[in-house]
Write a structure and sequence with these properties.
Strand content: 35-45%
Radius of gyration: 20 Å
Largest sheet: 4 strands, antiparallel
Distance between the termini: 43 Å
Order of helices and strands: EEEEEEHEEEEEHEEEEEEHE
């Protein structure tokens, strides 16, 4: 049986659609299925999503699956459905860091009613800058329920060839469009994380400051290194494996003080020019 890694990919946000009486939420990022050896499942990168010029190499599902799973739960019947939230980059002509959909993170959401939502979508872009967007999201009529489809759908969204009860090209996905580019509006904190409706035209937005802390890789002399600690793996003895994915020379990870701009807690009140419920897909 396949296992799934939960760290940093857990359930995020929860909102009640008052019109339908159903709860909605989502996973933060694509799933990270594990094989029997506890390693992240891979599939063939036939579309060269990692942009290394090869179409027969392997990539991790967690890095390149084209969607995150979105749940709809009906408290009355105690039944649920799963939908596909596409993780394409919000702005045309740009992309996520290393073109990885796994670089995208979904934060919180609020329901506008009648299958429409506002969702925080954030992550590092191709230039290394963390971007934050408020996305207007709509559950279309006939959206595909993917609850019965396993990780073969994630693999098919990458390689277009893994047999799946429903192929990625057939999936009727959630629709999304940019409602507000937060960085363009002056947002400076790394993580927009919490969202709430204040009144008909106003949203409250708060960041996650990670308790003012961050993690950093260190070398044998204790010097901080650039690099992503989550890209590293360790052997049975807890020693970082020199596999090219981790920063060269890294021997450990240390908790450090967070960046100055991210240590503070920021609360924004965003007043829109018209009722939030009046916004719709273009």
């Amino acid at each position: 049986m396949l296992k799934h890694r939960r760290a940093n990919r857990g359930m995020e946000g929860l909102a009640m659609d008052a019109a339908s009486g159903k709860l909605h939420g989502f996973l933060q990022s694509p799933i990270d299925p594990l094989d029997a050896a506890g390693k992240s499942v891979e599939t063939t990168d036939s579309a060269d999503l990692d942009q290394d010029g090869k179409r027969n190499d392997k990539v991790k599902v967690r890095d390149f699956a084209q969607f995150a799973r979105w749940i709809e739960f009906d408290p009355k019947t105690e039944t649920s459905k799963l939908y596909a939230y596409p993780l394409s980059y919000a702005l045309a002509g740009d992309k996520w860091d290393r073109n990885r959909s796994g670089s995208a993170k979904l934060g919180d959401l609020v329901a506008l009613g009648n299958g429409r939502f506002i969702v925080i979508e954030q992550g590092t872009d191709a230039s290394g800058v963390v971007r934050n967007f408020l996305m207007l999201v709509e559950l279309p009529a006939g959206a595909s329920d993917i609850a019965a489809v396993g990780i073969e759908l994630e693999k098919n969204s990458i390689d277009a060839s893994t047999p799946s009860a429903l192929s990625w090209s057939q999936v009727v996905k959630l629709k999304k469009t940019v409602l507000l580019d937060l960085n363009a509006a002056g947002w400076k904190a790394e993580k927009a994380e919490g969202l709430a409706v204040v009144d008909a035209q106003t949203l409250a937005l708060i960041n996650d400051n990670d308790f003012g802390l961050r993690t950093t890789l260190v070398d044998a002399a204790g010097r901080a290194l650039d690099g992503d600690p989550t890209a590293c793996t360790v052997d049975a003895n807890g020693v970082i494996v020199n596999d090219g994915a981790c920063a060269a020379g890294a021997v450990g990870v240390r908790v450090a003080r967070g960046n100055e701009i991210d240590r503070g807690t920021r609360l924004w009140l965003l007043k829109f020019p018209k009722a939030l419920s009046s916004y719709a897909m273009p």
